[in-house]
Amino acid sequence: MKVYMMSSEELGFSSDLSVKAETITRGMSLWSKISLTPSEEIALAKRFQFLSISNVAGTLTLKRCASQCWELTSQLIATVTQTCVVSGEPVSSELNIDIVERFVPKIDESEEIDATGVDVELLDNGYIQIGDAILQAIGVFAPAYPRSSTVPFLGEPEDADKNNPFAKLSELKK
User: Which residues on adjacent β-strands are paired with residue 74?
Assistant: First the structure.
């Protein structure tokens, strides 16, 4: 769905929401409440191989922050159910996500990208893919290795230092 915005009205969020970047002028701010329809939840769960996703709620704001740069900020919550990597049991995780992402038409090859800074994405034929940015964040912030609380944690063996060849070498140095 392509959306052309010319005012500061609320956007209607959907998973395929996109906005033509040039329609967002300096000082203008677009915003939306975030929620997913049941069919969008099913599609997202399938996309990221979750058992399910529910209770997706939040807000987003989109504004122009420089001549050729737009900033998307969002606060989002969701419940993701995944399969435990050890037992195969369902594991639910409550996600609390803060997103700050910038969109630019191109990245100059001479620019250095700060890995600790704000995420920078390219415009898609002049459009900001808002829906996809939100959905990707859910996928990124979901636990990579979900683990059930009922699965025991196997710690280090008690005699780990005795079997460690480097521990024996350090004893020889004494």
Answer: 60, 99
Please tell me the distance from the alpha carbon of residue 36 to that of residue 47, in angstroms, as a whole number.
14
Confidence of residue 8 (pLDDT cuts 50, 70, 90): low
Cβ-proximal residues to 130 (8 Å cutoff; 6+ apart), any chain = 11, 13, 17, 18, 19, 32, 60, 62, 72
Q: Which amino acid is at 24?
A: I
pTM of the model: 0.76
Phi, psi of 80 (to 5 degrees): -115, 130
- In whole angstroms, give the CA distance from residue 59 to residue 104: 22
User: Which residues neighbour 28 within 8 Å (Cβ) at sequence distance 6 or greater?
Assistant: 7, 8, 63, 64
As beta bridge partners, residue 98 has 75
Helix (H, G, I), strand (E, B) or coil at 41: helix
Q: What is the pLDDT of residue 10?
A: 77
Alpha-carbon span 146 to 85, nearest angstrom: 6
Exposure b/e, 14-46, CB count within 10 A at least 16 = b? bbebbbbbebbeeeeebbbebebeeebbeebbe
d(CA 49, CA 29): 34
